[in-house]
Amino acid sequence: MNRPLRPSGPARIRLASYNIRKGVGTDRTRNPLRICKVLAEIDADIICLQEADRRFGSRASVLPPVLLEHHSDYVAVPLDVQGDSMGWHGNAILVRRGMEVLSHDIIHIPYLEPRGVVTATIATRLGPVSVFGMHLDLSGLWRLRQARVIAELAAKARAERATVLMGDLNEWRRTSGTLREFSRHFAVLDCGPSFHARAPVGELDRIMHCASLTLEACGVHRTPLASTASDHLPVWADLKIVRKPPRSS
Fold it and tell me: How far is 9 from 210, CA to CA, in rounded Å?
């Protein structure tokens, strides 16, 4: 699906996940402003980013605060990590300017190569929503271990409030143990192939939600700009509230 129409009504929110490949596009040019333009096309309320920081050196953010301030409607959730970084191991969460971030944290997970998870609870039109952003390992064994840890932590959050998980799972197989771990607690959406951006065949980027939310629509954001800005296409979902999660005893 190409550029999605903005959901109408107060009871819906749009979420998106986007591996921005450190701002380097399929033309091998680093262009952070181009990423901001893709974010504007998607028009989501909350966006989880992967590869949002440089890999080496100071690991500075690909999207500096001044760029977001002047060329987007978003602010980064403060993760209290390295001063110049936006994310944690490249994972970041953007929220539409004016939305209140109620809490935020970073999560350490088992890894073969440096990986981490970011999480935040955000005040939305649906009430508080907990968001988990991730970029899983290339190794299937480590992906499974990571998925198990993340799914269990997110399952605890869903007992208190609506919960969504998003990110680049690096998982090619629909029947994988990784997706089975997540599907024990969450609905795994079929947004469509998002990698490689010029000829997408792999459903590597995923959005998952708890039973307190229901899907209105979802898809892959494929436009000429998005097909050039990164080697991944963004995925998006419009969700609305079904019921309040039960309070844990």
Answer: 21
Separation CA 143–CA 124 (nearest Å): 30
Domain 12-241 falls in which CATH fold?
Deoxyribonuclease I; Chain A (3.60.10)
With vertex at residue 201, the alpha carbon angle to CA 132 and CA 87, rounded to the nearest 5 degrees, is: 25
Q: Give the pLDDT mean for 46-67.
A: 88
Express each pLDDT in 215-226 by its tens digit: 999 999 999 999
Q: Provide the 3-class DSSP secondary structure of residue 96.
A: strand
Are 2 and 223 in contact, with CB atoms under 8 Å apart? yes
In this structure, are residues 213 and 240 in contact, taking their beta carbons and an 8 Å threshold? yes
Give the max Cα distance, the chain: 53
Coil, helix or strand for 125? Answer: coil
* Contacts of 142 by beta carbon, 8 Å cutoff, 6+ apart: 110, 111, 112, 115, 136
Q: Where are the domains of the chain?
A: 12-241
Q: Of 13, 6, 8, nearest to 213 (Cα)?
A: 13
Tell whether pTM > 0.70. yes
